[in-house]
Amino acid sequence: MSEIRLGNRVIGEGYPPFIIAEMSGNHNQSLDKALEIVDAAAASGAHALKLQTYTADLMTLDMESEDFFIHDPGSLWKGQSLYRLYEQAYTPWEWHEPIYKRCRERGIIPFSTPFHPKAVDFLESLDTPFYKIASFENNDLPLIRHAARTGKPLIISTGMATLAELDEMVNTAREAGCTDLVLLKCTSNYPASPADSHLLTIPHMKELFRCEIGLSDHTLGIGAAVASVVLGATVIEKHFTISRSEGGVDSAFSLEPAEMKLLVSETEIARQALGTVKYGLTDKEKSSLKYRRSLYISKDVARGETLDEENVRIIRPGYGLPPKYIDHFIGRTASKDIKAGTALRWDLLG
Predict the structure, then answer these.
(1) Stated pTM of the model
(2) Of the residues 246, 274, 302, the one at which a domain ends
(3) pLDDT score for 1
(4) What pLDDT, on the 0 to 100 scale, is given for residue 315?
């Protein structure tokens, strides 16, 4: 599997995990707040900032009937109609250009999740470098086909999709021209429980679909994200806010700047720690050899004196013979006078 590029960064084994800060609706309908989020994401070390590009009319119908209300008692958005929620959460399209501009000034890659072909066309006018398809749209094959035809990389979240649906989705993207594909393991619950994350799916997905795999993570904290890197995730997406106390549609499960900074550093540490299958001495352990245990004379011994457990001991440092040879010395005689503190050698035997 060849490496791919997302913007100016190479994605794949051997490279730092690609960290995406998802703004979503945490700007609370303030462009100034949106630009502040960009600055904070860049300062935290995130590599990309993601928007969501839609209008309420492109998402749903302005209806008050039961089908269009959120009734789930466990939902953060219980009691709202879909239309009103999307009105509250959407990012005005006229904000995209200044947000993209600020991202590029701060050295962070701007991109977005389009929720409709019209959104893809709009994002193309901003030279968006790649696209993300959300879990709730991964069954919208016409949308995936439209985005793939741009020829740009696609990131697709896999929440709720069956294996058959994933296969159909991947084939649709590739047949429409997508050559650089990233699938994100995702649990579409907000916030999600770590127990529902099933991160062991990551290497299985990589084997099945022969593409880069990452994690769209809605759990609290960074533990699941760090664990995903150990299993092969090369892209991590987390919702991001300046402060959860400020509220916002996704603030409850979003990372704050200090947490995002920790995510960037700890996922890279996890990647580096994987290394390769390795036994024995590393180059940097060579200086530690002297602190291993070895055989030493622990009391002065006269020539011809018998060596026993009183005058031969297994101790640190490691300049003597290895401990496994102690039985070759116990009961033998010394070939010469030996001072306490002498590392045992074969020529000291009589």
Answers:
(1) 0.88
(2) 274
(3) 56
(4) 97
Place of tokens 């699941």: 224
Range(s) of the domain holding residue 168: 4-54+90-274
Q: How far is CA 327 from CA 319, 340, 341, in A?
A: 18, 19, 19
Q: Does one domain contain both 270 and 243? A: yes
CATH of the domain at 14: 3.20.20.70
The total of other beta-carbon atoms located within 10 Å of residue 178's CB is: 23
Domain co-membership, 305 together with 246? no
Whether 176 and 293 share a structural domain: no
Q: Classify residue 152: in a domain, yes or no.
A: yes
- Residue at 175 is within a domain: yes
Write out residues in the chain with pLDDT < 70, as ranges: 1-2, 75, 77
Q: Are the C-beta atoms of 72 and 85 separated by less than 8 Å?
A: no
SS (H, E, C) the chain: CCCEEECCEEECCCCCCEEEEECCCCCCCCHHHHHHHHHHHHHHCCCEEEEEECCHHHHCCCCCCHHHECCCCCCCCCCCEHHHHHHHHCCCHHHHHHHHHHHHHCCCEEEEEECCHHHHHHHHCCCCCCEEECHHHCCCHHHHHHHHCCCCCEEEECCCCCHHHHHHHHHHHHHCCCCCEEEEEECCCCCCCHHHCCCCHHHHHHHHHCCEEEEEECCCCCHHHHHHHHCCCCEEEEEECCCHHHCCCCHHHCECHHHHHHHHHHHHHHHHHHCCCCCCCCHHHHHHHHHCCEEEECCCECCCCECCCCCEEEECCCCCCCHHHHHHCCCCEECCCECCCCECCHHHEC
Same domain membership, residue 330 and residue 231:
no
81 assigned to some structural domain: no
- 160, 31: one domain: yes
